[in-house]
Design goal:
heterodimer, A: Elongation Factor Tu (Ef-tu), domain 3, Rossmann fold, 16 strands, globular, B: alpha/beta, TIM Barrel, eight-stranded parallel beta barrel, four-stranded antiparallel beta sheet, 30% helix
């Protein structure tokens, strides 16, 4: 597996509502080898504080050597990252972790919630590129409100996938949870579910899939220092009683291998 | 075993000695920050390292602490990993063959809950191809028993050192805890007990609280502080210890650059270990080697040994 520590150049900064941002980075080596579900570690500052890199899932890549991340300002690291300027250089480490294992022979159900939508675009693109026909595939996106998700819809629509939205406040699509749509939708036989989002959402998706015997892959989040299996900081309880490390064994898991507490 | 240390006569001599072990340059990776080295193989030239010190190994595998195990703090981080490791037997069969294949000395960090455990690990490591030294961890703050208990009592520290020394032929380095009132007392005790080198410092015990949830940031409540935040404390302790012992001192604590490393050497360190910096910049230790080489060249030093303890005090 190839990994790189690359000096990327900021090519484009998009600012959306509610402190959501999308950065496009010129980052040819990592962009060329990243797979959907993998992540990068980005150094948000150049000094000693904040000290650690921050993990971001890969939102999408382009054949022209570009890579996008999608994030919300939630703390000091993302606050600094939100203020980068075009042409600024930032250090990117990646691609890291195990991504989604896309089953091209099965109808795909992609479920993204909140910032968990970020890796689903990359997966959706790869899904449509590898399959001749994605007419049976479905994308479910959940968000707090219309403002959190609206700006991402065109990218999904362009792929021609069936798209259903749920918002907590009902400002767009179904008024309620994305898991409610999943529960009430008749899913194509033999499908595989791929999901990323808040812990409670993934636990719900995993439960529904288990009940219907549908294979389900989840991409989970964790704090981490190194992203490459050295610090052992990103532990998460696994079903077998051991700890799994999100950076190496994940971030994508078969839902049934993890312990869900919600 | 003997390592081939290539010598280019046009380059400064960076070799230093840790007891009977000669290393190509004074830069090692600190235990617990470099995995078992393989994790870094795609991102740096492992062969450039003076030595690799692997993640602490116990007699039996340890699962480690529940999450959250790490939290970032100002210019540093707290960790309470809890010494998760594969245990000495799996280390020997699964990790050592790769490490042996590197043209770099491997120093195995060991830890135990009792004298008998330290002894038994040492016995199992004896004669394992590629093991060039042992670093005795008597300073981990993140496990309930053992570890730090040995590191805060000079009599216990000496007993562990003596026990390990008796069971091995490779150089034994003892890693000290900074969480003591006088580190020189412990340093002298382990030197008297036969330590071939002393490495310091392990992490400083610290704590962080998450205000919104009013909970400790770590599941273990307390953890070990590392990173640039602890460098002044580490430098002070290395200086103090180097003045009272005659064995080599290995400096650890917040070293990110060649400048940091050279400061530790001026304070009396024969070599240094790069720790938390590996997490941020996987090439950090290699860059420190390059920087030390560049410094030695610019200062026209025949050997890097000439700056050890060279702090100007007047």
């Amino acid at each position: 597996m190839s990994q790189y520590q690359e000096i990327a150049t900021v090519a484009r900064i998009e600012k959306f509502a509610n402190k959501n941002f999308r950065l496009t980075l010129d980052c040819p080596q990592i962009a060329a080898s990243a797979k959907p579900g993998q992540f990068v570690m980005i150094r948000t500052g150049i000094g000693k504080d904040p000290l650690l890199r921050r993990p971001f899932s890969v939102h999408q890549t382009s054949s022209g050597g570009r890579l996008q991340i999608y994030f919300k300002v939630v703390g000091r690291g993302t606050e600094i990252l939100a203020q980068v300027k075009t042409d600024q250089e930032i250090s990117v480490l990646g691609p890291l972790g195990r991504g989604f294992r896309l089953n091209v022979n099965a109808p795909a159900i992609l479920i993204g919630g909140g910032l968990g939508i970020a890796p689903m675009l990359f997966l959706a693109k790869e899904n449509c590129r590898l399959k001749r026909n994605c007419a049976n595939d479905l994308v479910l996106l959940g968000a707090r409100e219309k403002n959190e998700v609206e700006h991402l819809l065109d990218d999904f629509k362009r792929l021609g996938l069936r798209l259903l939205i749920a918002t907590d406040d009902g400002s767009l699509g179904h008024h309620g949870l994305v898991t409610e749509i999943l529960q009430s939708t008749i899913l194509p036989p033999g499908c595989t579910v791929y999901t990323c989002g808040p812990e409670a959402m993934m636990a719900g998706v995993s439960r529904i899939c288990q009940a219907q015997d549908i294979p389900c892959q989840v991409s989970v989040e964790s704090v981490m220092a190194c992203g490459m299996g050295a610090c052992l900081g990103c532990s998460r309880p696994a079903k077998d009683g051991s700890y799994t490390h999100v950076c190496l064994n994940g971030p994508v898991y078969d839902a049934e291998d993890l312990l869900w507490t919600m | 075993m003997d390592y081939v240390i290539p010598r280019d006569e046009n380059l400064p001599d960076l070799r230093v000695n840790i007891g009977s072990l000669e290393i190509a340059n004074p830069v090692m990776t600190a235990s617990g920050t470099f995995g078992y080295a393989r994790e870094f193989e795609n991102l740096m030239n492992l062969h450039r390292l003076g030595a690799v010190i692997v993640k602490g190994i116990s007699l039996y595998p340890r699962a480690g602490n529940p999450p959250p195990r790490i939290v970032e703090t100002a210019c540093g981080m707290l960790n309470a990993i809890g010494l998760q490791n594969v245990g000495v037997d799996r280390f020997i069969t699964e990790k050592m063959p790769y490490l042996h294949g590197l043209n770099v000395p491997v120093i195995v960090n060991i830890l135990g809950d009792s004298l008998a455990e330290y002894e038994e690990i040492t016995v199992r490591l004896a004669g394992v191809p590629g093991v060039s030294g042992i670093e005795v961890n008597i300073s981990c703050p993140n496990v309930k028993k053992g570890g730090v208990a040995f590191g805060t009592d000079p009599i216990m520290a000496a007993a562990v050192t003596g026990a390990v020394k008796k069971k091995t032929d490779v150089p034994v380095m003892v890693k000290l805890s900074p969480n003591v009132s006088d580190i020189t007392v412990i340093a002298r005790a382990v030197e008297d007990a036969g330590a071939d080198a002393i490495s310091l410092i392990n992490t400083l015990i610290g704590m962080a609280i998450d205000l919104p949830t009013r909970r400790p940031a770590l599941a273990n409540i307390i953890g070990g502080l590392s990173g640039p935040a602890i460098k002044p404390v580490a430098l002070r302790m290395v200086y103090q210890v180097a003045r009272v012992v005659s064995v080599p001192v290995i400096g650890i604590g917040g070293i990110e650059s060649a400048e940091d490393a050279l400061e530790f050497m001026l304070a009396g360190a024969t070599a240094v270990q790069i720790g938390t910096a590996n997490f941020i910049n996987p090439r950090a230790s290699e860059e420190v080697v390059e920087g030390i080489e560049a410094y030695a060249k610019a200062e026209k030093l025949l050997s890097i040994r000439s700056i050890i303890g060279g702090l100007r005090l007047e």
